[in-house]
Amino acid sequence: MSLQNEEMDVVLKIKRYSPEKGYWWQEYKLKVDRFTQFTEALRRIKSEQDPTLAYRASCHMAVCGSCGMKINGEPRLACKTLVIDMAKKYGSNVITIEPMDYFKPVKDLIVDLDEFYQRMYKVKPRLYPHKEVLEGNVEQRLKPEDQRELWKFAQCIWCGLCVSACPSVKMDPEFLGPAAHAKGYRFLADPRDTITEERMKILIDSAWRCTYCYMCYNVCPRDIEPVTAIKKTRAYTRLAKEKTSVAQTGEKHIEAIFNSLVESGKLEEAKVYLSTYGLLGSIKDFIYLFQSGKVKYALVKEKPVENISEVRKILSGDNK
Ligand code: SF4
Ligand code: SF4
Ligand code: FES
């Protein structure tokens, strides 16, 4: 049989939910072909086997952002994922489907996205152009190089997958989350926008709350790299007139890392930690290190790397 005609019997094990019954798993058997997306499989289950199954999907082409769910534990767009591909990837024709993590369940695979939209609205996700532009008196064109900078971050389809996968969102109520940062940076870096100061106030403190775990980078179905938007937003900190203590600590941390690399070519964690938080700020963690017998690791004195002058040249930008 050619690849095009490939078929497979699969079992979709779906984590269902209703406010009355709570969670339960239900299995559905069906035959899929090479081109069956998960949204198509769900549509067939709903129309041929079980009309009570609830899920969201609209465009079936990775544009509307409504079909985010966990497939074999991976946050994915159901319409952009082929059933056969997942069966092959995991070497099993039994595949689990669950609602996205973090968001409140509504019914089966449908979650409540209100909280996600509130995050997005907090970053004022639209352009605020000059008055003359609004009145139609002048035209303000975007230069190609500016367009290139913004393009990636403008492609967000508000699917929520990155937020569902982000550990910092779960831990820190002050963190806006990856999608809001991608959207926020898209307007922060737009030279036509007029509320840069306000945007910096909204975004900078939050940007320093990301832990750089890269989950958002891994799961985004549009390759938007929200973590890159966060890094770029952090670079605006030096322009901010007012800085929160979180942003100030973030700046100190970056400076401490830079100094450590200049000095030894290595990241000396204990030294970086002390320079960032100071002796008093570090005491609590040192007590923990002491109690857990790990203090000896913190006190390791790193030898500078052999070619330290090369490292310093790179760090000074003189690496031609
Ligand atoms: S890199 Fe930052 S924003 Fe992205 S998932 Fe990790 S903590 Fe969240
Ligand atoms: S950044 Fe990517 S994963 Fe996050 S909401 Fe936008 S499209 Fe979805
Ligand atoms: S159905 Fe629109 S993104 Fe999947």
Automatic annotation (TrEMBL):
What are the 4Fe-4S ferredoxin-type domain coordinates in residue numbering? 147-174, 200-230
Query: Which class of enzymes does this protein belong to?
Result: oxidoreductase
Looking at the Swiss-Prot or TrEMBL record, what is one Pfam family this protein matches?
Fer4_8
Q: Does the keyword Transmembrane helix apply?
A: no
Keywords on record: 2Fe-2S, 3Fe-4S, 4Fe-4S, Iron, Iron-sulfur, Metal-binding, Oxidoreductase, Tricarboxylic acid cycle
| EC code(s) of this entry | 1.3.5.1
Question: Which pathway does the record list?
Answer: Carbohydrate metabolism; tricarboxylic acid cycle
Q: Report the cofactors.
A: [2Fe-2S] cluster; [3Fe-4S] cluster; [4Fe-4S] cluster
* Keyword match Hydrolase: no
Gene Ontology molecular functions: 2 iron, 2 sulfur cluster binding; 3 iron, 4 sulfur cluster binding; 4 iron, 4 sulfur cluster binding; electron transfer activity; metal ion binding; succinate dehydrogenase (quinone) activity
Q: Which PROSITE patterns match?
A: 2FE2S_FER_1, 2FE2S_FER_2, 4FE4S_FER_1, 4FE4S_FER_2
Record's protein name: succinate dehydrogenase
- Which species is listed as the source? Sulfurisphaera tokodaii (strain DSM 16993 / JCM 10545 / NBRC 100140 / 7) (Sulfolobus tokodaii)
Organism placement in taxonomy:
Archaea, Thermoproteota, Thermoprotei, Sulfolobales, Sulfolobaceae
